[in-house]
Amino acid sequence: MITNNAREGFDHLLLQGIKSCLATQDSDNCQIHIKNDLTDSQEPHLAVLTISSYLFRVMVFFHFATDNPTKEHFAKLCKTSAHDMNEKVFMDAICERANMCCGSLSRDLSRAFPHIGMSTPNIVNRQCASHLHLLNFVHIRHFKVEVNTATHFHVTLCVNSYDNLDFTVDKFASDAGNGELEMF
What we know:
The structure is a single chain. By secondary structure, the chain is an alpha+beta fold. The protein has a single domain (4-161), classed as Chemotaxis protein chec, CATH 3.40.1550. It has 3 helices and 7 strands. Strand 2 and strand 3 form a beta hairpin. The model has no long low-confidence stretch (mean pLDDT 88).
């Protein structure tokens, strides 16, 4: 069982990660809308990451296309030009930003749950999302992300609970960073 507090906490922490890692700067207009389903999603690719503990498994799917607005947005995030982004560089940029977003989520979850691990990103075809129901998630949330009205993509959050799961997030606490690696 997962409580409403926990559901809201997962949603809130992921939204913070999206805003801090997938928008280029504070001046970007990043709008995130909750969607009931992905019927309006046409993105052919997914970047998939998993965050796991003894009590839960979180899977985050970043739905994206290889269109010009998306390439330009991720080129801007990487401080390069879209012309310099071949397919490999573009996929690496998507994976890096998805990794930063989930790194932020993982870091924030580790405040409530010790022993959290996170996978590296994998790119899969969009048809894989049609099989999510087979994993029996107890919480699924779809988000449509629009950055500066030109770039559109979707993010899906899926949570499995292996025990009673409850935690509360301080929604007014300032964000501590965007999931980048810390060197000691």
